[in-house]
Amino acid sequence: MPQIKSKEEALQVLSGLEEKTLIRVAELSTNKKALGYFSNPFQYSVLKGFLK
């Protein structure tokens, strides 16, 4: 997994996703529980570990 360090880099990566995938990521961004996994360092580590 690449290390993304800025909003610009993140948007560049997201712009390369196919439309269906980008829509699903956007839908997750509106879910409070899903956002918890991204905003909490421990939960994010668990999520990344699960995806490896």
Structure, described:
The longest helix has 11 residues. Helix 3 crosses helix 4. The protein is mainly alpha-helical. It is 73% helix and 0% strand. The termini are close together.
Compact description:
The chain has 52 residues and is mostly helical. It is 73% helix and 0% strand.
Count the domains: 1
Shape: globular
Q: Could you list the spans in which at least 5 consecutive residues all have pLDDT below 50?
A: none
Rg for CA atoms: 12 Å
List the helices and strands and how they pair.
Blueprint: H1 7-15, H2 19-28, H3 32-39, H4 41-51
Question: Which labels suit this protein?
Answer:
single chain; 52 residues; 4 helices
